[in-house]
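Reviewer 2 asked us to include a model.

Predict the structure of this chain.
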Amino acid sequence: MLSVSIGITELADGDALKWILSRADLALYEAKSHGRNRSEVRPTDPSPPERHPENSLADK
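Predicted model (structure tokens):
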């Protein structure tokens, strides 16, 4: 059996690549934590991810 979890994010003007990837990565892990065959959307954040400890994946 094949299962797929997907993390999706919106793009905003001025988004840095690491912000986009960080939001998509967080959405992916949220989808995986809720079960299989899911997709989760993480909207844009008005503050850059570096300002939020939860988004520290961007620098890893």
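Residues 5-59 form one domain. The mean pLDDT is 80. We have added this to the supplementary material.
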